[in-house]
From TrEMBL:
It is found in: Cytoplasm; Endoplasmic reticulum. It comes from Triticum aestivum (Wheat). GO terms for cellular component: cytosol; endoplasmic reticulum; signal recognition particle, endoplasmic reticulum targeting. Belongs to the GTP-binding SRP family. SRP54 subfamily. Keywords: Cytoplasm, Endoplasmic reticulum, GTP-binding, Hydrolase, Nucleotide-binding, Ribonucleoprotein, RNA-binding, Signal recognition particle. NCBIfam families: SRP54_euk. The lineage of its organism: Eukaryota, Viridiplantae, Streptophyta, Embryophyta, Tracheophyta. It catalyses: GTP + H2O = GDP + phosphate + H(+). The NG domain, also named G domain, is a special guanosine triphosphatase (GTPase) domain, which binds GTP and forms a guanosine 5'-triphosphate (GTP)-dependent complex with a homologous NG domain in the SRP receptor subunit SRPRA. The two NG domains undergo cooperative rearrangements upon their assembly, which culminate in the reciprocal activation of the GTPase activity of one another. SRP receptor compaction upon binding with cargo-loaded SRP and GTPase rearrangement drive SRP-mediated cotranslational protein translocation into the ER. PANTHER family: SIGNAL RECOGNITION PARTICLE 54 KDA PROTEIN, SIGNAL RECOGNITION PARTICLE 54K PROTEIN SRP54. Its main location: cytoplasm. The keyword RNA-binding applies. This is Signal recognition particle 54 kDa protein. It comes from the Eukaryota. One of its GO terms (biological process) is SRP-dependent cotranslational protein targeting to membrane, translocation. The gene is LOC123170338.
Length: 493
């Protein structure tokens, strides 16, 4: 996503400033100009950029700083604070409470990703123990109910809608009644997508809101719309009391600047971002870690949370135990591949590591790696359980290799490549000696870090910024939760 480029430009501007022998007003001006250019390229509104520049200049008085003060740190802190201020409207969004009949209404332009996002939002809360339900009050677009029905069925979420009824207010009220009776504690109402010009549809949105009295109105906005974001968000704010924003399609060509504009226009916080079409491609949005990532400071708590959502805490020790036994089987490799695919774009992971940027992941390479992983998994799908659970690669005789290749519709070379990858990973894990590497308190010794580095494929170490960056990272993590890291670690497939 282009937002990563914004992060890269901002951290480069700050880095260039720190390499200057003397940090004076000129250097500060040059640095702020560079940041302003980067923000404007990311579609942030001109006025917001000017305000940001002026506020930083006001808060940083270089001459008044005591000798010996780290000027770069002062400037970096001021930039971070201003970026946070732009994204934080100062009042938190309504948070649904379990066991209460929370009503949340979704609004947004046609095609913004509203229906998809309703299901993602429901699914997210379902995993947190809520009992969500979906009401389709979109009678404008033919097929809207079918789409919601399909999404809801896949996610096993109860839904309500009608093919016959044309009054969205009636459907919304009926759905609300039904799910209140069924004790749903999160009733989500999807409304018609509208074009900006359609005053009638804005009126309809107002009526649905009046009849259902939602606790929260969420405005869904396509992240790639650029400068138009401010006006669009403002139009919605004027017709409905928008209380939170979700920005979608942040995986594509979204420049991200629109997110800042939407916050300014609605005076409501961004609570989630959509990062793909799949139901799980949905991330909680927190201002400080986000700005931290833009400034290259990383987001370690976010990274660990992500790891935990992929490999639940209760399964982590099981995985580490298996690795500690030296029992690295093809099935374990398959599970690691699954975790990797769930982890999302590597570039995104990199941006969560302090000092790293998602630009580290060469474009194109990521797609190739993913395709390779999927290819290997298809091959493994054609193997028997005994083969997957065995530690003996000799089980894969020539005739079995031929059979698996045929069964998976792949070339023999693909199967042998996959087996080579397995052997390489098995060797790496046995060299690592996991039980010694991670003692019960989770803290890794310097020696253990060195050992891990030696066993890791050089290209992975290089991708992570080299040896010293990796050492610094492990130390920053305080050696804690290394099992989470191991659970998701790949061997450079
Ligand atoms: N890449 C990507 N695609 C998304 C995301 N969110 C939604 N989409 C896609 O965007 C398209 C439009 O999504 P919908 O959910 O149908 O949009 P909508 O706003 O409900 O549309 P209307 O019902 O016409 O208002 C679909 O193809 C979705 O799969 C996202 O975060 N990333």
């Amino acid at each position: 996503m282009v937002l990563a480029e914004l992060g890269g430009s901002i951290s480069r501007a700050l880095a260039r400033m720190s390499s200057a022998t003397v940090v004076d007003e000129n250097v500060l001006r040059e640095c702020l100009n560079e940041i302003a250019r980067a923000l404007m390229q990311a579609d942030v509104r001109f006025k917001m950029v000017c305000d940001l520049q002026a506020n930083i200049k006001k808060s940083v008085n270089l001459e008044a700083l005591a000798a010996g003060t780290n000027k770069r740190r002062v400037i970096e802190t001021a930039v971070g604070k201003e970026l946070c201020k732009m994204l934080d409207p100062g009042k938190p969004a309504f948070v649904p409470k379990k066991g209460k009949p929370n009503v949340v209404m979704f609004v947004g332009l046609q095609g913004s990703g509203k229906t998809t996002t309703c299901t993602k939002y429901a699914h997210y809360h379902q995993r947190k123990g809520f009992k969500p339900s979906l009401v389709c009050a979109d009678t404008f677009r033919a097929g809207a109910f079918d789409q919601l029905k399909q999404n809801a069925t896949k996610a096993k979420i109860p839904f309500y809608g009608s093919y016959m009824e044309s009054d969205p207010v009636k459907i919304a009220v009926e759905g609300l009644e039904k799910f209140r009776q069924e004790k749903s504690d999160l009733i989500i109402i999807d409304t018609s997508g509208r074009h900006m010009q359609e005053a009638a549809l804005f009126e309809e949105m107002r009526q649905v809101a009046e009849a259902t009295k939602p606790d929260l109105v969420i405005f869904v906005m396509d992240g790639s719309i650029g400068q138009a974001a401010f006006d669009q968000a403002q139009a919605f704010k004027q017709s409905a009391s928008v209380g939170a924003v979700i920005i979608t399609k942040m995986d594509g060509h979204a420049k991200g600047g629109g997110a800042l504009s939407a916050v300014a226009a609605t005076k409501s916080p961004v609570i989630f971002i959509g990062t793909g079409e799949h139901i799980d491609e949905f991330d909680v949005f927190n201002v400080e870690p986000f700005v931290g990532r833009l400034l290259g400071r990383g987001d370690l708590p976010g990274l660990l949370d992500k790891m935990e959502s992929i490999v639940p805490a209760d399964q982590q020790s099981e995985l580490v135990a298996k690795l500690a036994e030296g029992a690295f089987t093809l099935r374990l490799m398959y599970e690691q591949f699954q975790n990797l695919l769930k982890m999302g774009p590597m570039g995104q992971i990199f941006s969560m590591l302090p000092g790293f940027s998602s630009e580290l992941m060469p474009k194109g390479q990521e797609k190739q790696s993913k395709e390779k992983i999927k290819r290997y998994m298809t091959i493994m799908d054609s193997m028997t359980a005994a083969e997957l659970d065995s530690k003996n690669p000799k089980l894969m005789t020539e005739s079995r290799i031929l059979r698996v290749a045929r069964g998976s519709g792949r070339q023999v070379k693909d199967v042998t490549d996959m087996l080579e990858e397995y052997k390489r990973l098995a060797k790496m894990w046995s060299k690592l000696n996991v039980s010694k590497l991670i003692p019960p308190n989770g803290k890794m010794s310097d020696q253990a870090i060195q050992k891990m580095l030696k066993a890791m494929p050089p290209q992975v170490v290089q991708q992570m910024g080299g040896k010293s960056a990796f050492e610094a990272l492990v130390k920053q993590m305080g050696g804690k939760d290394m099992s989470k890291m191991l659970a998701g670690m790949k061997g450079g497939a």
